[in-house]
Amino acid sequence: MQYWYNVDTAQVESDEDRSPNANVMGPYDTPEAAQNALQTAHEKSEQWDEEDRRWNDEGQR
After folding, report:
1. 48: which of 4, 39, 54, 56 is 20 to 30 A away, CA to CA?
2. Is 46 a residue whose pLDDT tops 70?
3. The predicted structure's pLDDT at residue 57
4. DSSP structure string for 18-54
């Protein structure tokens, strides 16, 4: 079973009770991973931003 994080309700949902795609993040393998979806997305965004900064800096040389 997969799990989803509903951004409107801040609740974890399973495949059986999942809301429409526009409202959820996922899929995740565990309810815990789904509950941490926003934190995970934030961390990945920070990582990608840093990679972009490094790539842009190297391209300027």
Report:
1. 4
2. yes
3. 86
4. PPPGGGEEEEESSHHHHHTHHHHHHHHHHHHHHHHHH
